[in-house]
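Treating backbone geometry as a discrete language has practical consequences that deserve illustration. Part of our work consisted of pairing the sequence of a single chain with a tokenised description of its backbone. What the numbers capture is local backbone geometry rather than side-chain detail. For completeness, the protein is quoted in full, as a sequence line and a line of structure tokens:
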Amino acid sequence: MQYFHGYGDYPDSPGHRNEGGKPYFDIQTKALNPAFFQVLDIRMQALWENGFLVAIPTTWWGKTNNCVFTPEDAKHMSTYCAVRYGAFNAIWSLSGEYQYAFKDCGWTPEDINLLGKSVQEHNPLKRPLSIHPSGRTNWDPPHDTQSSLPFHDQVWLDHHWLQTGQSRDRLHYMISRPAETRALEPPVPVFLSEAFYERPDDPEGAYTSRWQVWTSLIQGTCGFGYGAFGLWQFYDPDDPQGETGKFTGREVPWWEAQQFQGSSEVQHVKAALNQLDWWKLEPAMDRIVVDGKPGVLPTAEDISPPQAASVGKDTWFVYIPRGNASKTIELTGVKSGHWSGTWIDPRTGAQFPSGQITRERNTMTLPKLPLPDEEDWVFLAKSVLPE
């Protein structure tokens, strides 16, 4: 969500209302409308009471033909929101798709750094702070990384956000971008805040959503942001004031978008990961062997390669996408001893024993995939005698 909406990411920056009106009485003078924030208070309280952690940019400052915010305006509003809502459980972002503030509004990286410094000065509860990047890769270096990586050395940044792109041919970045960012020193958590959102009438939508959430966590991120077209812009074609939310031609009304199949299936990753110290997962793509050959990474054309991660020497976690029904999948570098295996159905969350696990020397051969074997599956192996 955003604290306020409808300025950046909209060509004319009209600003959007809630039940209390728009956030400003006058966008030119930046006179605040108290009623807007009183209604926002209710929303933030409801999210808190229902156990949500909010991942929240203040707003999009750029991505518009009508830049209405200076860097100084951004500091005033961001610090106001930090103070007013700092008690609520959240992770903060200075901006949505920050590169557009450079392109459209003439901001500089130093403007971002000063904004970050100001927000941290108003962050006594130490809410995690980062910045949301664009998913494009054609920005001038170093801002072409789909990551907050260019600000890694800034004292205001304490974790990273990624956006790996709103198209299927960019799904493979969900392997390379976390790896690049996790390799930085000093290491900080990495949040995959945005990837390929589910769309209406997409027969692959639920599968693609599952692939993304399992991939994200196996690749060592601390979280994944699921999205749906129609929901992210709260699209309402019947809004009485014509404030429908951004129209791209790919959305349905928000009450339909929240029923997409993928939204009910991504939740199963939580129950699965809660069985282990998931924050200790280390990607182990180099340990996979498929049909006797070293495993390969997903590409723009093929996302079927299996993915693995481990927790120490005693737990292995393998996501097996579609396209592996007839293949033999092995893990190398597995310690000796007895292992128990569990199959996890990412569509339903159901779990059941895998049956016998074959291990020879330091190589484990995964059992044959359950039915339907043309679908994706998750395999969890635990040492019977952990170290």
